[in-house]
Specification:
Blueprint lengths: L4 E6 L7 E6 L2 E7 L7 H19 L6 E6 L18 E5 L2 E5 L14 H10 L4 E5 L5 H8 L4 E6 L2 H13 L6 E5 L2 H6 L5 E6 L4 E2 L8 E2 H14 L1 E11 L8 H6 L2 E5 L17 E7 L1
Parallel strand pairs: 3-4, 7-8, 7-10, 8-9, 10-13
Antiparallel strand pairs: 1-2, 2-3, 5-6, 11-12, 13-15, 14-15
Length: about 290
């Protein structure tokens, strides 16, 4: 994997419950909320030790080390800024250049655990009409476009992320049949009649955003979603469906009823630097038979 963004530590020691990611010349330290069995004061001291020793161990100056605290976010909180510095930097991954923001949001704009997934989509996209749903900042769309897709349609509810995706396309000097839609993917699908050869779907595990009519739960609602997605597939088309809900179980019977053959490629899409937590996402290739 040719990239300057990767994970170097993932809570390998229980008393240091953090993940550390490299983004070019910067580090992002994500503190996982400690379990109730861990004393809060001890957890605080451990975090201070991590931040104290990281510059000496890695050679990265303290001013280039960012701290984020992981906790359950719901609804609108998932999209809210945590800072307003507006700092963006360009990173690279397998031939793509992508913007990340290491300070303003809980997430950086690039999910590192999907590095192989993006490469697989790129390899599948040549000459195809591609749809990317719940697109976030459009990194999968960029991969599809660089892979020679005939067209790429990028849909996300957040205007911030749609604009970010557009910027990622400009960054890679991509010009062509590329469309960007700011909309609730569930509502948009119901009224959409377009057809695609390859559809990438990576919904959130849960959402109760005020911009949605109802709550969303990927375990409860994935059959409903994939039924709508299936309607947009060309004959012989393929869906790449992923989510990060721990313990998620795909309804294989429902997939069979939809005429979709299932190939669970989760293990193939977990990068080596995420092997310690190999359940970080599930990924399936669903092929219209």
């Amino acid at each position: 994997q040719d990239t300057n963004c990767y994970r170097i530590y993932d809570a390998d020691l229980p008393e240091y419950n953090v993940a550390i990611d490299v983004y070019d010349d910067c580090l992002v330290v994500q503190e996982y909320a400690p379990p109730k069995t861990i004393d809060a004061e001890k957890a605080r001291r451990s975090l201070q030790e991590v931040l104290l020793y990281l510059p000496a161990v890695t050679g990265v100056p303290a001013k280039q080390i960012m701290l984020k605290v992981r906790e359950q976010k719901k609804g609108k909180q998932q999209y809210e800024k945590v800072n307003t510095t507006g700092n963006r930097k360009v990173v690279w991954e397998n031939g793509a250049k992508l913007y990340v923001n290491l300070t303003d949001y809980l997430d950086t704009g690039l999910f590192l655990d999907h590095r192989i997934t993006r490469q697989k989509v790129r390899q599948m996209a040549n000459g195809k009409d591609v749809l990317n749903l719940f697109s976030y900042t459009g990194s999968v769309s960029v991969a599809a476009a660089l892979g020679g897709a005939r067209s790429v349609t990028t849909v996300d509810m957040s205007n911030t992320y749609i604009n970010w995706a557009k910027d990622n396309f400009k960054l890679n000097q991509l010009n062509g049949a590329y469309h960007f839609v700011q909309s609730d993917c569930l509502q948009w699908l119901v009224g959409h009649n377009g057809k695609y050869d390859l559809i990438f779907v990576d919904p959130p595990s849960f959402s109760n955003s005020k911009r949605m009519d109802t709550t969303w739960d990927v375990q409860r609602d994935h059959v409903m979603l994939l039924t709508q997605v299936r309607r947009c597939l060309n004959p012989g088309g393929t869906i790449v469906f992923s989510n990060n809900k721990r313990g998620f179980k795909l309804d294989n019977d429902a997939m069979a009823e939809l005429g979709l053959a299932v190939d669970n490629i989760s293990a193939q899409t977990i990068p080596q630097d995420f092997a310690r937590h190999s359940n970080i996402h599930q990924c399936y290739v669903l092929t219209l038979s």
